[in-house]
Design brief:
Length: 147
Amino acid sequence: MKVILKQDYDTLGKQGEAVSVKDGYAMNYLIPNHIAVKATASNLRTLEELKKQRANKVKKEIADTQELANAIAATVLNIKAKADDDDKLFGSVSSQIISEALGEKGFNVDKKHIILEEHIKHVGEFMVDVKLPNNINTQLKVQVERE
């Protein structure tokens, strides 16, 4: 019997896949436990429509993320911090501080997406990697100035 999985199932496949299973397994376990539905013509059409909607949603998310990446790349972030005469900061600039400064400029970027090998500890200009969802990467120019 051919069934369409309503959720991910380890031994059978992912949600939305049409798989063949034994009749008893489908009728006695998968369908009563709402894991799958029969693969009728109408259910298959519904499945195809859902796949199209998901694909469109993913395309829109990727486009939005790419737009955000382009806007971040065009931004220069100025951060003021206390420093001594040798331009060494009292403290450091972390991904949290950069995330908050981006938030003030209208960008919603989580600190986990800002990649710093180590905290910024000197006054100067730095290029910081930003890894956004959907495998989109960009760089942000951060200028640390003396307060």
